[in-house]
Every structure is written in C-alpha cells, then in structure tokens.
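for the writeup, i need someone to sanity check this before i put it in the appendix. the sequnce is what the collaborator sent (i think, or maybe the updated version? ugh). structure was predicted straight from it, no edits. if anything looks off just tell me and ill rerun, i have time this weekend
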Amino acid sequence: MGLIFAGIGAQLILDGRPVVDAGVYAAAVFMVVAITMETPPLLLWALRRFGDHGQRRSAELTLRNTVNRSPTQARSEEVRSCRTSSSRD
C-alpha cells in the first residue's frame, strides 16, 4: 500500500515538482522492504512465545498425568474436580 501511494506521489507534479521527491520515495521503498522482511520472523517469535498462553504445556502435563495413574486414581480425581467446580457455581 505504501508503494502505491509513493509511486502516485512521485508521478504527481505540483508547481513543476513531484509531490514525493526521490529521497522520500527511496525512504518509502526501504521501509516497505524492511517491514516486509522482518515481519515473518518477528511474528513467528511472538506466536511461539505468547501464542498459546501456556495451554500447550498444560495439555502435555494433563496427558502425562493421565497416562501415569491408575483408573481408581483417575476416577477419584474426577470426582474431586466435579465437587470443586460445583462449589464455585
């Protein structure tokens, strides 16, 4: 989008001079290229760091705990969980 406006401004002539001179056009092109190149790695970093809000780790721990316990333990924990959640309501 920035390149479109910069290109139109460079072609637009007002009082015999272009609205966007060569220096401003070069700066706009540089900024568009720089932002385009740095956005994907920064987005990947942000999603890895903040994307799941810890849900993935919580799910892994839940799965690990489920695998390592007996059916009797699992049932008693489910009952406790139901009692705890119903007392909150």
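The chain has a mean pLDDT of 77. The radius of gyration is 29 Å.
thx in advance!!
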